[in-house]
Fold:
Amino acid sequence: MRLDIDNHADTIVAGMNCCVVYKTTMVCTVVPYHGEYAPIEQVQIVTSATAIDTEHYGTIIFEFGQSLDFTGSMDKTLINPNQLRSYGIEVCDDPTDPYRQLGIWISSDLFIPMHMFGSSCGLLSRRPTVEELNSCPRYIVSDPNHWDPSNVKFPSHMMEEEDFRPGYRTLASLKCGTLNSHGVDYRSIYDIAMSSISSCLAPDEFEKGVTQSIHVSLSSQHIASMNSELRHHAPTPESISQKWGCGIDTAKRTLEATTQDFIRSAILPLSRRYRTDLLQQDLRHLNITEYTDTVFAKCKSLAGNTCAQLFTDGKGFMHILPMTSKSEAGHMLDRHCQEVGIPNKLVYDGASEQVGKDTRFQRSIRHYRIDGREIEPFTPEQNAAEKSVRIIKSRWKWLMVCKRVPKRLWDIAMVWIAQIYSRTASITDGRTGMERITGDTCDISEWIDFSFYDLCWYWGHPDDESNPKIGRWLGVSHRVGSAMCYWVLAHNAKILSRTTVQHVTATEAAKDQIQAQIRDYHTSLDQYLGDDGYVTDLDGFEAFINDDVPGELDAMDDWRLPVRGLEEPPLWEEVPDIDDIIDQATPESAANTYHKYVGAEVCLPDASGERKMAKVIKRLKVGDDQSGGMNPWLDTSTYEVKFPDGHVEELEANLIAENMYGQIDSEGRHHQVLSEIADHRKSNAAIHVANGFYKTRSGNLHPKKTTRGWDLLVEWKDGSSSWVPLKELKLSNPVELAEYAVANGIDHEPAFHWWVRHVLRRRDRIISKVKTKYWRTTHKFGIRIPKTVEEALELDRINGNDLWAKAIEKETSKVRVAFEILNVSVDEMRQGKVKPGYQEIKCHMIFDVKMDGNFTRKARLVAGGHMTETPASITYSSVVSRDSVRIALMLAALNGLDVFAADVGNAYLNAPCREKIWTIAGLEFGSDAGKVMLVVRALYGLKSSGAAWAAMLSQTLTELGYNSSRADRNVWLKPASKPDGFEYYEMILVYVDDILHISHDTKPAISALMKIYL
Structure:
């Protein structure tokens, strides 16, 4: 059969003389040359192969990446020559070219001639056999990973020939010749002469002539170790996002910023070993500043390691080296210089093994002529490695808990985490950490096929009859074997280095025989590791410490980066006590360092102009403010502001206020713009897939509408990250959330199934209308709002003040009258032995910040009214109508009456409680915490409190001579007359606890109310 050159086909079309060797996760729609013919949809994009019988080289295999699968219906194969040229293959399909022979140049010593079949140019080929695929030389002539016919780039250099798959050789183009201003390579004098007339006459500049009719779209296939039919995974943004734990956009940037030259593909099970003669790269001298620190572990790893030395530039690169003892820090510095490069400057802390004059660490610094810098004692923020340690610990926590990774694999897991982190493209400049420090585009081929602890097949000893065997993929073994060589965990807990590794496909995992092998593998592994070798929940996690003296553990609260599987991060890094912050020399100096701005978080530009979330630490000096604190724009006080990287700046209060008020809504909530969704988690409250539908009377199944139990880890444009409930993110960013759900294979979950497909079908209309701002409800005016008393007190400790504590104390002193202590136990109350018929409820504090210029903290104790049964009595709360207010104000204006507005503080507490309820005193009650307390006054939050207060106020107004209006029962009237004899009705309008009094003399009535309710 023929293999024809077709310049009008924008993608290679594999016909019946080809076979499929690898299927990608992509499909496309093929549009014919004439509009009357229907397009062909869902055409699979594959890597295909065809056999060519040559006179001098025997049978060779051409492999076409990114080709269309028509192997079962088309009698010949169509080759787009520009697709070959973009991969570096020189093609001459012009029979009139006097300087080049008609054919394909695979390399300088391998030329495949072509012939003319009438007006068509091509050659003869046939479908290869399985034996030929395994034994004949195979040449990849088009990119197997990427082809975009609308954006074609032709290489100007020659790629060196290199073996990287069994029987495979990469292909080379000729070395570059003359280049034009765009870097296009003219391969002959003829082309140069023709291009001088017109660029349309030069084949290599004729890019725009390629027909753009193929529309490639990613399928929604979920790629995972146990949910895929592929033995090796193509490097797609979706697969990278899942394996590396990053967002889709970050994965796309990473693929664009890196190369993936070493990609394995196979559709058959393991039957022999892969080639193991691949080379690796060496790195060089580094013109950067690096930071280093030691990470300690509680348990000894399988390799006998107890700690690890971390090296980082603080900007996206990490290199971690496990050690059996911290005394090996110097040896790890030697390895770091050999494996990565020699930094110009190295910053480290005062650990004895690092600062001692005759230590190996210091000898290595002198040997490599590194500028070593020791940080100041008790200033860990000067060492950027501290932040990298937190990242390492956080991601290891997710791996161990969520993937059930044995604890004793902590060292090899940390190495993998650091490698992934250094090869992930940054959102700021789109470059990876490796590229930033070396200047070279790094290749990520070895990390994109597997995720850590994936179930896999591996090939043991060549003569072992039990091959292939079940194992767990642990990472890339750079110091053992060649490139594409991996660490595999065997059934006996031994870590092996193997090149021949494949995924266990979903079809295989469904077979009883394979399932038995997997169970036997895990049973054997548990015997070697013991029952305590795993951690399955967060409570059982054993943290790592970042200390130079092993034995003291960091608290879990030390984790501040919200990554996969983590709870909401702590508020900010720890600061000293208030006594250490405040300058107590004089009252003036103390006032300078203690102010209500302290602790506020606001997005501010740093020295480089990039906006980051910064925190106000203390006030340095008092400025001029003629408004008495009511107008923050007139305040010229100076504050010390600390940014996330540790550096501090001095800013004036009016600049802080300008940025703060410019980023909030009318309620003081800070808005954030989504950068990307990085991860998801679900709780036990989420509806299971099996319960995601309900059946109608007609027997039809309809999806349940639910968003309960799901949170998304969102990275914001200001550089911060946080877990956001699904119900909130769906409102602000529905399209991004729907695309994330499909890409990560969770769109079938009940919380997504009922709306995702609908959103994607209408994405263009939704994008134009949706408000893409998420209003952060955790902060107001840049100040974090606590959810509990414990969190409020912790905030005070962190901020070095007592603002929340004073608000709690103020509220508690007011509501104390609403409770009566019973000297009985909690069990006696719950068993009904005391006060039978009483219901137990919970009371809690809610917090807010007032926009009064001083950002006054406010606390309010409320009852959990949702926990009680609805009382039989009326639950009405007095609310005057808007029309009544308008009429009353009009009458006041017509009759020249005064209008006085008043508010009854803690109004509900004046009324008795109508319900039989009790509670347990919380932390806010001080020494009474934990005691049984009866609720004797109407608390905010109870269902009957509004009615109780309305009844009491009604009684008071009746006693004062007022009568309720028939038209509006919340308008109270009383006959009155002015001094001149003019008769009218005084009015009191009631809106819950707000009162509007209209009279020629408002003092008597207001004074009477104040005496009763003050």
